[in-house]
Amino acid sequence: MTTRQRPFRRSNRTYSLVLALLVVLALIPPHRAQAQTYNANTDWFMQGKFGLFVQWLYGGGDITGDWNTLVNNFDVDYFAKQVSETGAKYVIFTLGQNSGYFASPNATYDSLVGRTASTSKMSTRDLPEDLYDALNPYGIKLMLYLPARSPSDDPDAVAALGDPTPIYDHLAPQAFQAKWESVVQEWSDRYGAKVAGWWFDGTYNNGAMYGKPDISQAYTDYTAAHNFQTFAAAAKHGNADAIVSFDPGLSVEAPMTTHADYITGEQNLLQYVPSQYNAAPYSRWIGGVQWSETAYQGYDWARNGFKYSTLDLTNYFSTVTNQSGVISIGPNVSKEGHINSPQYAQLVNMHNAIAGVGPGVTVVEDNDAGISYSGTWLTSVPSGTGYSGNNGHFTTTAGSYSEYTFNGTNVVWSGVKGPDHGTADVYIDGALDNSVDLYAAHRFVNTEIYSKVGLTNGPHTIKIVARSDKNSASTGTYVEVDRFNITTGTPTVIDDTASGFTYAGTWLTSVPSGTGYWNNTGHFSTTSGSYAQYVFNGASIEWYGAIGPDHGKADVYIDGTLDQTVDLYNANRYIDDQIYVKRGLSNGSHTIQIVARSDKNAASTDYYVEVDRLNSSKGTPIVTWDDSNSQLAYSGTWSTGISTGTGYYRDTGHHTTAAGAYMQASFTGTSVEWRGKTDADHGMADVYIDGVLDQTVDLYSEERFTDVAVYRKQGLTTGTHTIKVVAKNSKNVRSTNYYVEVDALSFQ
Question: Quick one: signal sequence residues (predicted)?
Answer without folding.
Answer: 1-35
